[in-house]
Amino acid sequence: MSILTHKDSRVELRPIQISTLLEVEKLFSDYQVIVLNLPVASGKSQIGLTIAKWAERHKKMSSALLVPNNILLTQYSKDTLTPILHGVYESKCIDPEYKSCGERKQIADANNSSKKKKEQLPLHCTNCPFRKKESRFYLKYKFNYITNFYKYLSLKKHYKDTASRDLLIMDEAHTLIDTIKDLNTHHLWSHDFDYTPYKSIPALVTALKNTQLDPEGSNVYQNIITALSHNPPLYITKIEPNATHRGEVSPRMVVSPLTTDGIPNPLWNKNTKLIFMSATLGKEDIKELGLSGRKWAYISAESIIPPENRPVISVGVEYVSGTNLLDSAGKLAEEIKYLAEHHKEEKGLIHATYSQAKELKKHLPSARFLHHNRYDKKQVFNTYINSPDPVILIASGMYEGIDLPYDKGRWQCIAKVPYLNLGEPSVKYKSQSEPDWYQWQAVKTLLQASGRICRGPDDYGVTYMLDANFNKLYQRTADMWPEWFKESVTIIEKG
Fold first, then answer.
1. Buried b vs exposed e over 141-176: b needs ≥16 C-beta within 10 Å?
2. pLDDT, tens digit, 9 for 90 and up, residues 135-160
3. Which end of the chain, N or C, is less surrounded by CB atoms within 10 Å?
């Protein structure tokens, strides 16, 4: 039975979805990893859901469709009848002291993180509504469901190997590298272990090996010991003297991975069939994920949105860097005000780093501009989405995973080329050893950001590049940009 017969009966598949699904059906049995390189408006969600249903009914395979964040998870909940498991922060805690089960768990985690504490707090209340929902969910849905990366790991932790799926379908799969690095980042707090006397990594490892054991007899620092003992090194260390622990400043050592190739990956095992969906997952990313040794196939498609409907205009207002955010904010704000007036009847989005957004806020006090911080991000985003007025969101950390079709987003600006922070030791190491890797990270993020508006062939949305560094990057990395992006770009040279 054709894979196409397993689509949602309420949905009419587009030609690009049909051709992609038929190609997946043809390659499915012969490849362990299939990468679907699909630009915006390809309809990835329906492609992924159709594959999951077909694999269950035709191949007798259980599957999970995984996404990186709850914003994207919410979008899926509007488009499908497939069961969705939301995260712990989406469940209201029965203890009135906490807003959500996630807040309760976070505070318990912070208390329990100190290895010197004898009294451990339960992570969840007795009769926790989230744990009940999770248990019922797992028992009921044995085959297909949708959740985020971290929630899938939680299911695997609580239900062991029985929670593992035969097939993982991952949307926005380019985020997997950062997810796996995050899962393998370790913190050594100074209030738990004084690392300062040890002047070398071998000396620190020896000291950690001789430290306390947990009640089961295992070394409480075993993960850090293992990470630091790799030869050649796969991890790098840095000291954060002003880190915050339970509201108080406490120095810590951060042990973070240089690469995902060769470090533990709890998401899948050697027998798991993998399907990655992303507009920006390259062959080098497959290598970094440690999958180059598997048999894998790459399926690409061109954009179905006419380039004139999704113009990318580089206006090159100012060369922006981490050292001139204060000085450049004024010029950028003037350009944003000009564009806001040009689009005075339309909603807009300004992509900026958190530090940059803080400076822009001083120059953009109008009620039309919505500002957020790390803690009220979701609430402010929802205000933007639901507002009937032509508001403008100064958005940080929203380069991907948000969907602003039609009047929800007619224009956007990218205020700074999103280069990774060279102050991070692991980023600096990789940028020096693999310069192309560093450029590719910025290209990937810009490709993702450019696709937040103009979500279909009948949609329209314009992207403005304000940072003059884009022109240099675009010329230097010409071979990294897909043709569907190049055909939309116009560079305005300043006289």
1. bebbbbbbbbbbbbbbeeeeeebbbbbbbbbbbbbb
2. 666 555 555 778 888 888 877 877 76
3. C
